[in-house]
Structures are given as structure tokens and as C-alpha cells.
Amino acid sequence: MNHEELMLRAINSAKSFKYTAKPNPVVGAIIINKDNEIISEGYHQFYGHNHAEINAIESAQKQLGKKFKSFSELTLICTLEPCSHQGKTGSCAEAIVKKDIRKVIIGAIDPNPKVAGKGIKILKDNGVKVKNGLFEDLVEKQNSFFFYKHKNKKPYITVKIAASSDGKSHYDSNQRVFITSESSRKDVQKVRANYDAILTGGNTLRNDNPRMTARVNFPLNQPKKILLTNKTFNKESNFFKNGSVDIFDSNNLFKIIDFYADSDICSILVEAGPKLANAFLQTGYVDELIIYTSSNKLGKKGIDWFYKDNAIENYGFKLESSYKIDNDIKEIFKKNE
Ligand SMILES: NC(=O)c1ccc[n+]([C@@H]2O[C@H](COP(=O)([O-])OP(=O)(O)OC[C@H]3O[C@@H](n4cnc5c(N)ncnc54)[C@H](OP(=O)(O)O)[C@@H]3O)[C@@H](O)[C@H]2O)c1
Questions:
Q1: Best probe residue, ligand 1, of 169, 238, 250, 283 (max atoms within 8 Å of C-beta)
Q2: 55 by DSSP, 3-state: which?
Q3: H or E stretch covering 187
Q4: Taking all residues of the chain, what is their mean pLDDT, rounded to a whole number?
Q5: What does the pLDDT look like over 260-302, one tens digit per residue?
Q6: Which segments of the chain have a pLDDT < 50?
Q7: Is the pTM of this model over 0.90?
Q8: For residues 294 and 168, what is the distance between their CA atoms, to the nearest angstrom?
Q9: Were 195 and a residue from 35, 237, 269, 271 both cysteine, which residue would form a disulfide, CB within 3.0 to 4.6 Å?
Q10: Residues in CB range of 207: below 8 A, 6 or more apart
Q11: Cα 198-246-262 angle, rounded to 5 deg
Q12: How far apart are CA 188 and CA 212, in angstroms?
């Protein structure tokens, strides 16, 4: 295999850990000898666990003396720049230097300002040969929320809503109602699985008692839950079972978005009623809108999602895709930029 094929292999295998590594990026590392034969592979499998390079080095260590004499004969191929900071697991760039690996081929520079070139500097300052930018676009694409967050200094924000065919969210009595089909609700579970956090407001918590977990049949690091409320709420609610919860008693959405710009969270799914969903849309910071529309009506007793001044057209979205799920329609709108 040549270096291009090896990098593609690392990118492709890293993908398997998309749901368990988040909110971290997926990363793959392959260690090869002079003849481009694979000595070991490592992946960042779970959030908070070893980085890919460390797993590859630890696995190569077992071959030392059998398949190679010294790490200095080997080349490390990794999809993302090795980290420079200590973080949860120690600096990968320093571990590479310590092992005396002399050549490193990198897919993309880590956009996290804590790293952003500093990992490469540690390598170069210690005489390691570095080649960078092999399939950078693919690495960026497979970690789109991670790259987006660091480029834009804010998490990627999606508002997801379910609407009746007459554009309503719920009944004015606040009684809980399932608007869309079971298949759409299953689809929502998969959407949730993609995000680092799910955010809702106090009324939805009190009226619906939602769990807001991603109930999917594959392993994942469950999204963090975020609650915005100034009022009292039942701490025994389903929302507080399974997973960590951040609670904000502020109505200032800009401050809340800013707070997450400085955290590990790269993407937030807003699942709230019309008041909070529209307040988010009005910030201008929403990147995507997902609307599930059922064929049923709620009628006069239903509360509107949008009315003339806050029609979604005014927020500058364009329709990206539209398809049927049973009798419902799922539409995805993205910012028209
Ligand atoms: N069809 C759907 O997709 C869907 C999804 C979710 C919910 N719902 C329905 O929506 C209903 C509740 O809708 P809702 O919009 O009144 O409640 P919500 O989703 O709880 O959002 C409004 C609440 O968020 C909090 N909040 C914090 N900052 C805010 C801000 N800047 N602007 C607005 N709210 C802010 C406040 O909580 P406090 O009042 O606690 O301070 C406010 O009452 C529920 O009955 C539920 O059934 C429908």
C-alpha cells in the first residue's frame, strides 16, 4: 500500500468510532515500516480514552524486536495533527518524539486553538520529518462539527421541530401530543445520536417530561442535556436520568452559545417549543432547521410554530432535502450562505 492508500484506510476505519468518540473528532493512526508494511493501527475509540497515535504506538510496542528493531525505522500516518497539549491523555506529539519515530504524515492540521500547528512544531523542533495535508478535505468532512466549531468559534446549532399539517406545535392545554409517526420519531433518535448536546426549555420539561436521549441500537456517547429555565422544575423528571445535564437560569442565548464555544461541545440540537425555538432562530446563530410535518391537523386549539413575522423564509434558510417518512415529510433547511 502507498501512503495515499494507507491514509484512506486510516480515515475509513476511524469512521467506525463516530458515535463513541464524540464530541472529540474521529482519528486514525497507522505505523508502517520502510517497505510500507503495516506494523500497527490505532483509533480514538471512546471519548476520554487514548488518542489514536497512543493506541498505534502501544500496539507497535508489542512487535518491537519481532517486526522491527527501533521506532526510528518507522513512519506514523495519522489523519489529524498529533495533539500538543496534555489534555485527558497526555501530549501525542511528545509521545511520538519520546519513541523516536522520525517521520510523520498528517491528514489535516487540528483546528483546535490548543493544538493548531503546535503539535507539528513539537515534532519539527525535535527533528521529526513532517508531511501535512494528505486528504485534508476528507478528514475535515468526517469531522464536520469539530472543524465548524473551531472555525466559527461557536457550536453548530440545529433546531428540530415536529409540526402538524396546519403548522402547529402542541395544544394550548399543554397536554402532550405525538404529532408525527413512530417512524419519524425513530428517525429523530438517529438525528440525536449525531449531536454532542440536546437543549430544551422549562415548559417542555414540565409539560412533556421528555427523556431526550438517543435511543439507538448502536453504542454511543450520549449527548449532554442542556436545560434553560428560570422557574422551578421536578428534579426527578426523566430528563435528569441517564447522562449529564447543564442548567442555565439565563434567557441570554448569546451567553449560552458563547459558553459552549469554550467547551468540548461542537454541536447542539435544540428540541423545544415555539418560544425557545423561535428565540434561537432570532439570534441568527442557527445553522440548520429540521422539520417533520405530519398529515394530521391540530386545528384551532393548536399553537402555531411560525406566524407572519417569524416565517422561516425570513431567517434565510434554503431547502436542502425533503423526503417522506410514512405519511410525514422530513425537510432539512440550511443557512443560505
Ligand atoms: N412539536 C414539537 O416539535 C415540540 C418540541 C418540543 C416541545 N413542544 C411543545 O412545546 C410546548 C412548550 O413550548 P414553549 O416554547 O413554551 O416552551 P419551551 O420549549 O420550554 O421553551 C420556552 C422556555 O424556555 C426557557 N427560556 C430560556 N431562555 C429563553 C429565551 N431566550 N426565550 C424563550 N424561552 C426561554 C423558559 O423557561 P422557563 O419558563 O422555565 O423559565 C421558557 O418558558 C410543550 O408543551 C411541548 O409539548 C413541541
A1: 169
A2: helix
A3: helix 182-194
A4: 93
A5: 998 999 999 999 999 999 999 999 999 999 999 999 999 989 9
A6: none
A7: yes
A8: 10
A9: 269
A10: 170, 174, 175, 176
A11: 85
A12: 10
